[in-house]
Amino acid sequence: MKVEQLFTGCLAEMAYYIESNGEAAIIDPLRETEPYIEMAKANGAKIKYVFLTHFHADFVSGQVDLAKKTGATIVFGPNANPNYDIHQGKDGEEFKLGNGKITLLHTPGHTMESSSYLITDEEGNTPCVCTGDCLFIGDVGRPDLAVKSGSITQEDLAGHLFDSLRNKIMTLPDDIIVYPNHGAGSACGKNMSSDTFDTLGNQKKTNYALRADMTKEEFIKEVTTGLVQPPQYFPNNVKMNKGINISIDEIIKRGTTAINAEMFKEMSEKQDVLIVDTRSKEAYTTKGTVPGAWFIGIGGSFAPWVGALIKDINQKIIFIADKGTEEEVVTRFSRVGYDNTLGYLNGGLEAWKAAGYAIDKIGSISAEDFKNKLEKGEMEAPTDVRKESEYLSEHVVGVNNFPLDFIHNNFAEIDSEKEYFLHCASGYRSLIAASIFKANGVKKVTDVRGGFKALKEIGASLTDYVCPTTLL
């Protein structure tokens, strides 16, 4: 039996292609369907099933489009009631796939419909289990995303998760491979490893949540402690995953419309249109951008930052892209439900400048110059835009914290007359923050090249503790 993990770094998400004797199944597919269809075609197989581990919150999954194009049956576990046809599986139900089978294990806790899928090969062996967001490598799924007021609490869900792990997952052989749905960088857990798979036996030794002598009460306390507010787009994606959405093909066709500079300028000046510059950090900083554009480069964690920062899931978006990446950009917007992309700047920034339009640029400073100016007291507003937890762990003395994650909630604290010097860990988040500062009327914004990493390397004065209060 062929089992292939399909990792998407932008989302830290893993889908799975499983095949036996001409029949294939996909577990937790992304929005775009063609990669799965092409894989099956290349292997001479027909996609028979599309299995979902749960209603995802951090991306829009592609089960409806994929089933429509292939005739596959969509399978969820118990308690799932979407607005489209599915086979609602039962705990322990077996699904024949070629000469092997896939067994549904109902493992509620992250959500109530959450299920894992045990793979049995042609010889009757069980080489692996796809655990969705029940069990990660180094962590377990957070139990606060499916809370329902007056019905179920995060403590209730954590209790279900404890039972699912102990009664369904930890009883499997120690040498079985655990294939989760997410890895490090996802907001669906709090302590995920960068590894994308591991043996169950090793996870029993290293994963805090699988400690053999842990009581249920200890487990509930452990997994509910330290949870940060989930990204604001999560409920929207859950809703979309329960419904029927615009076809990915239609979204790509509309989103890859080429817009000339004159029309792009006209659209950019409308209040209900957002410009996003998706180019590389280098292109953005050296060549400048269209005034008012936000920088969110596809070279970084694009989709999660789109979801965290663009409040309206229906936001009209026009974008700037490196040539040849236009379809990829639209696809990545759609992965987190931002389907209202209207097109891109044809000819890029060169066409914009050729039309005689002004460009905007973010200031830039080296880590060495930042350190010197800071030590001499020549800086008005040195600002670290990393997460509060990163800042509290270690930061440059004299630098205040203003996390990018909550930039819109706290923007009233920003004085548009001050000059801000922004840094993050390595320079991606600080450019995003700088562009939003600029778009919101802050005239003097400077990015620190190389970020905290560079500052640490050159010996900037650091502190490893600060009272958790944001001061600007």
TrEMBL record:
<dbReference type="InterPro" id="IPR051682">
    <property type="entry name" value="Mito_Persulfide_Diox"/>
</dbReference>
<dbReference type="InterPro" id="IPR001279">
    <property type="entry name" value="Metallo-B-lactamas"/>
</dbReference>
<dbReference type="GO" id="GO:0046872">
    <property type="term" value="F:metal ion binding"/>
</dbReference>
<feature type="domain" description="Rhodanese">
    <location>
        <begin position="384"/>
        <end position="464"/>
    </location>
</feature>
<protein>
    <submittedName>
        <fullName>Glyoxylase, beta-lactamase superfamily II</fullName>
    </submittedName>
</protein>
<dbReference type="Pfam" id="PF00581">
    <property type="entry name" value="Rhodanese"/>
</dbReference>
<dbReference type="GO" id="GO:0050313">
    <property type="term" value="F:sulfur dioxygenase activity"/>
</dbReference>
<dbReference type="InterPro" id="IPR044528">
    <property type="entry name" value="POD-like_MBL-fold"/>
</dbReference>
<dbReference type="InterPro" id="IPR001763">
    <property type="entry name" value="Rhodanese-like_dom"/>
</dbReference>
<dbReference type="GO" id="GO:0006749">
    <property type="term" value="P:glutathione metabolic process"/>
</dbReference>
<dbReference type="InterPro" id="IPR036866">
    <property type="entry name" value="RibonucZ/Hydroxyglut_hydro"/>
</dbReference>
<dbReference type="Pfam" id="PF00753">
    <property type="entry name" value="Lactamase_B"/>
</dbReference>
<dbReference type="GO" id="GO:0070813">
    <property type="term" value="P:hydrogen sulfide metabolic process"/>
</dbReference>
<dbReference type="InterPro" id="IPR036873">
    <property type="entry name" value="Rhodanese-like_dom_sf"/>
</dbReference>
<keyword id="KW-0479">Metal-binding</keyword>
<feature type="domain" description="Rhodanese">
    <location>
        <begin position="269"/>
        <end position="361"/>
    </location>
</feature>
